[in-house]
């Protein structure tokens, strides 16, 4: 369904079951230079099959929306989270731990937003 060709850093988003990995933390302690951050205060994995457009309400604090545009072969994600720290989501072919995930982590530090793509 979506393959950048970078198998060393990216997880292929494919038709069929995958896992959405989510996490957030109550403090903003992500180091944007190294990508290191404290262990999450909330986390989980949700099995899901990607379709053209959907919204997943993980809990009262975390919602994830996405749309796949076949014409441009692009995914568009929106994450809405109530937290005062950082937020993350990832895709994976397996559940458990943080190994082998392709994650986006973002937050706001001193009034300035940041977002990054991290692989573990």
TrEMBL record:
Superkingdom to which the source organism belongs: Eukaryota
Entry EC number(s): 1.14.17.1
Group of enzyme by EC: oxidoreductase
GO molecular function, one term: dopamine beta-monooxygenase activity
One GO BP annotation of this record: dopamine catabolic process
Oxidoreductase is among the record's keywords: yes
Zinc recorded as keyword: no
Keyword terms of this UniProt record: Monooxygenase, Oxidoreductase
Residue ranges occupied by any DOMON domain in the UniProt entry: 60-120
A GO cellular component entry from the record: secretory granule membrane
A Pfam match: DOMON
Alphabetical list of InterPro entries matching this protein: DBH-like, DOH_DOMON, DOMON_domain
UniProt-recorded name of the protein: DBH-like monooxygenase protein 1
Species this chain originates from: Desmophyllum pertusum
